[in-house]
């Protein structure tokens, strides 16, 4: 754009310069011709030579007058031409001045245009460099962004692979855990069903044993009542026999009285022994010296340990030890029983509290075997060191 605007201005400047040169040449030619005409026309008319001849003075005067007029006319014409030339020169000078002013203005305009073109060229070059730099920066930025995108893409792909791997591992782990939990749940359900079944069986068995105990207790109470009644009748009978014997003895002699008393005592001792054997020592807390000594002499420690072992087995049959929870623990139980094995009382004297609670419950449900009358006094209050199997 700047180059195109510069070329017309250059052509205009050349035309102006040529015009000025032509005007200067024209002025020189006109000046030269004017001077040449003045020298050539001196002493001639219209530039023609006049031969010297004698003429009439009047004619000469007339001719002189005519010549003067001609010279005046020529001079006036020359003045007019000179004036015209001066006017033309002045106009030409004015035109030259105007043209020079115009040339100066054109030169200033040219310089301004050149400066503007230079600035535009510099600006265009700077813009081009800036665009190139911007384009290079943009391409570098795009390349960097593309590299970052590729790196981010690779990182994301790697991360997705890792996540997929972790997800697969986690799913496999969760699946294994679910299967294990399902197995554990089924096992726990099976154990709960077994425990529920055992509990139901235990409750049914305990209920049956309780009913049996109640029945046995009622039967024992009935037997005790019958024994008490028999003893009372026997006492009444003995009192009547004693009264009859006393009455008969009063009638007999002193010797007969002594014999009767002796026989009576023997019969009474025999009856008491039979009654004690029948009741199993229920009504007598302390055996007769002779009978107790005899029974203790016939009882060994092995028989007592064997009986206590039977009692412990009876308690163990009623004791529930899930998953051997109470293994390795013990509880000291103090048990009081009746001659027929009926449980009178039980208490814990030491050991593990949780085990003792279960052992007490099991003891109250256990069917304790009937002890032999020979060692009842040794086991009616006994201590059992209960250890679950």
TrEMBL record:
Basic and acidic residues bias: start-end ranges: 131-156, 164-276
Gene3D superfamilies per the UniProt record, alphabetical: 3.30.1150.10
One Gene Ontology cellular component annotation held by this UniProt entry: membrane
Transmembrane segments: 12-32
NCBIfam families assigned to the protein according to its UniProt record, in alphabetical order: PRK09510.1, tolA_full
Taxonomic superkingdom: Bacteria
Keywords carried by this UniProt record: Membrane, Transmembrane, Transmembrane helix
UniProt region (Disordered), positions on chain: 127-300
One GO term of the biological process aspect: bacteriocin transport
Record protein name field: Colicin import membrane protein
InterPro entries: Tol-Pal_TolA
Record flagged with keyword Ligase: no
């Amino acid at each position: 754009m700047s180059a195109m605007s510069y070329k017309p201005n250059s052509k205009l400047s050349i035309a102006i310069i040529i015009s000025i040169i032509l005007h200067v040449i024209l002025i020189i030619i006109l000046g030269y011709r004017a001077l040449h005409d003045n020298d050539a026309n001196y002493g001639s008319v219209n530039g023609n030579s006049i031969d010297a001849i004698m003429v009439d003075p009047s004619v000469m005067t007339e001719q002189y007058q005519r010549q003067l007029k001609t010279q005046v006319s020529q001079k006036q014409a020359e003045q007019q031409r000179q004036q015209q030339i001066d006017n033309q020169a002045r106009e030409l000078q004015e035109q030259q001045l105007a043209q020079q002013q115009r040339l100066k203005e054109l030169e200033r305009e040219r310089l301004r245009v050149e400066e503007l073109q230079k600035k535009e060229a510099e600006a265009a070059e700077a813009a081009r460099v800036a665009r190139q730099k911007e384009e290079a920066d943009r391409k570098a930025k795009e390349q960097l962004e593309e590299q970052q995108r590729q790196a981010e893409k690779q990182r994301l792909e790697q991360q997705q692979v890792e996540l997929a791997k972790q997800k697969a591992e986690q799913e496999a782990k969760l699946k294994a855990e679910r299967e294990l939990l399902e197995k554990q749940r089924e096992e726990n359900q099976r154990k709960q069903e077994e425990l529920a079944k055992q509990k139901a069986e235990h409750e049914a068995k305990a209920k049956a044993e309780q009913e049996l105990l109640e029945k046995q207790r009622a039967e024992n109470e009935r037997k005790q009542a019958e024994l008490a009644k028999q003893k009372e009748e026997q006492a009444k009978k003995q009192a009547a026999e004693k009264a009859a014997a006393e009455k008969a003895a009063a009638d007999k002699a002193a010797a007969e009285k002594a014999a009767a008393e002796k026989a009576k005592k023997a019969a009474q001792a025999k009856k008491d022994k039979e009654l004690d054997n029948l009741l199993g020592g229920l009504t007598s807390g302390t055996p007769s010296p002779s009978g107790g000594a005899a029974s203790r002499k016939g009882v060994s420690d092995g028989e007592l340990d064997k009986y206590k072992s039977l009692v412990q087995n009876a308690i163990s049959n009623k004791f529930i030890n899930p998953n051997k929870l109470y293994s390795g623990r013990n509880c000291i139980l103090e048990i009081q029983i009746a001659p027929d094995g009926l449980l009178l009382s039980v208490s814990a004297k030491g050991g593990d509290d949780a085990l003792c609670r279960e052992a007490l419950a099991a003891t109250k449900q256990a069917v304790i075997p009937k002890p032999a009358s020979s060692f009842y006094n040794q086991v009616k209050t006994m201590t059992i060191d209960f250890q679950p199997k």
